[in-house]
Amino acid sequence: MAKITLENLAHSYLPNPKSDDDYALKELNHDWVDGEAYALLGSSGCGKSTLLNIISGLLHPSQGRILFNDRDVTMEPTTQRNIAQVFQFPVVYDTMTVHDNLAFPLRNRGADPAYIKERVQQIAAMIGMEATLGHKARGLTADAKQKISLGRGMVREDVNALLFDEPLTVIDPHMKWELRTQLKSLHHEFGHTMIYVTHDQTEALTFADKVVVMYDGRVVQMGTPQELFETPAHTFVGYFIGSPGMNVLSAEVTGNTALIGGTEIALGKGYGSPKGKVELGVRPEFTALVAGNEGLPVTIKRVEDVGRHKIVRADFQGTEINILAEEGANISPDMNRVVFDTAGVNVYSDSWRVPPQGA
Fold first, then answer.
1. How far apart are CA 126 and CA 123, in angstroms?
2. Cα–Cα distance measured from residue 314 to residue 176, given in angstroms and rounded to the nearest whole number
């Protein structure tokens, strides 16, 4: 296992980058703690795979260093980094049996045959392929082949890190849940440093100790699922995590009040006078639809019953606001105002969260 340090790291695919816009990965300075499980989460093109490939040694960065346990590995090849990587699409040896595919990394390092047999059986049970150990990989389905790739990545116990690049893309939904659970069990049992790239927030939040949210080549927040939900550091985090995502409203903030479209809202805490593009961020879980004169006046567009709760889609001066209501809640025509629980209100300046004064 290894602590992974990113020091002034950045990468551009252009030969002579001149501005931030020329960088696929903008400057990063982060420590990845030895033995923790991380998920790199973000939309396509945000730099997740670029960063993973730099960590693995498949790509050399344009600037900066990468260190494993304080040892500079920036220019070392993948073979010298002692990592295992599983890619989005299956990489297997078609002419080998499932058993031999799983055993290959151990045989390649001269492991004891008795240990290889035991470890292959253990991993085969983990990925549900005990019955096919003697089958050639060539005739298997794409999701079976990807399970072999996952198993081969997990078979070694001595790696510095396990890297996964959207490994469950070709796996059926039921097996995805099982494999994520198995990966978590593996992490708890052996304590590998794990980095898991995905664009799926459910995968990220159920797999990782810490989620690293990327946007436009930057890490905009690294935190626990609870931290990302309660205090998104950037409006993208609030929008991307949660279903529906965070409501974001233009506002003028002075002290402990906000003016939104002519309506004054209490914030519960003081924020001074933030400058730039000021916005209020409130998750649907911290909103309520009421009747009366309190809150923002809205027009209800539709109500979606999703079983566990109802999602009310409302319009406030051309901006959609999503409100969560309990499954049995009665939504009457006179409920035309939205109020916010101040415990769930965040203030943003130029998309970045403004901490309340005294916090």
1. 5
2. 35
Residue-wise pLDDT tens digits, 189-241: 767 788 989 888 888 888 888 999 999 999 999 999 899 999 999 999 999 99
34 closest CA partner among 171, 165, 187, 198 = 187
| β-bridge pairing 37-41 and 263-266 | unpaired
Cα dihedral across residues 167, 172, 176, 182: positive or negative: negative
Its CATH class, for the domain covering 4-235, is alpha beta
The neighbour count for residue 119, using CB atoms within 10 Å, is: 20
Query: Cα separation of 233 and 25, whole Å?
Result: 19
pTM for the model: 0.85
pLDDT tens string 124-142? 988 889 999 999 999 898 8
Report the distance separating Cα 276 and Cα 53, nearest Å. 36
Please compute the mean of the pLDDT values over residues 331-347 and round it to a whole number. 92
pLDDT (tens digit per residue) in 71-105:
999 999 988 888 888 888 888 999 999 999 999 99
3-state secondary structure 112-130: CHHHHHHHHHHHHHHCCCH
Domain with CATH 3.40.50.300 in the chain: 4-235
Q: Provide the CATH topology of domain 243-354.
A: OB fold (Dihydrolipoamide Acetyltransferase, E2P) (2.40.50)
Q: Which of 52, 78, 82, 74 is nearest to 167 (CA)?
A: 52
- What per-residue confidence (pLDDT) applies to 221? 95
